[in-house]
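BUG: 3D viewer hangs when loading the predicted structure for this chain

Environment: internal workstation, default settings.
Expected: structure renders.
Actual: progress bar stalls at 90%.

Input used:
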Amino acid sequence: MGFSIMPKEEKFFALFEAQADHNAQAVKMFKELVQNWDPKSPAFDKIRELEHEADITTHEIFDKLNRTFITPFDREDIHQLASELDDIVDAVQSLSNRMLLYKIQHSTPDLINLVDILDQAADAIRKAVGNLQDKGKLRRVLDYCIEINRLENTGDHARDIALSKLFEGTPDPIEVIKWKEVYEVVEYAIDRCEDIANTIESILVKQA
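Structure tokens produced before the viewer hung:
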């Protein structure tokens, strides 16, 4: 199994790696934020900057796709992978903004746990994308995809536990609504990681 590409096409892989790196950085920044929650943290601005950089990279991929006659794999797969990679940092940036809007004043162990799972998934994506061009490491890429699928299942379970705790005792309904959305957006981002893994697996199958 392997990719047959011309040198001029290699930039697609470099751009995918840049996207995956933006995601990993944004998630790690958010992880640090929820571990040391501070509504005035400079991390919010850094996450916005990373989201902007990721948008630029995504547009660069789309522009290159429109100008390249021969691509390393199906054009539809390139577009899908780029779009899905962009979804992760978008979700993180949206969530950090939403938590400010909701005036959330503290973090929770359940949020920290969910974000840690997201961090592991984003890091596995970064490694998978980083090895995608090397035909000798495609088995390793598949292993990363399997790990991402496992993490998605772990994320589902962690979300369910977090949601169940919201309804213990006599909770404030407004707080329940806020935290339900926060937990579900983190789990949504983990789900998008699984989508990326599935897309990568599909690309490899087509190239077999």
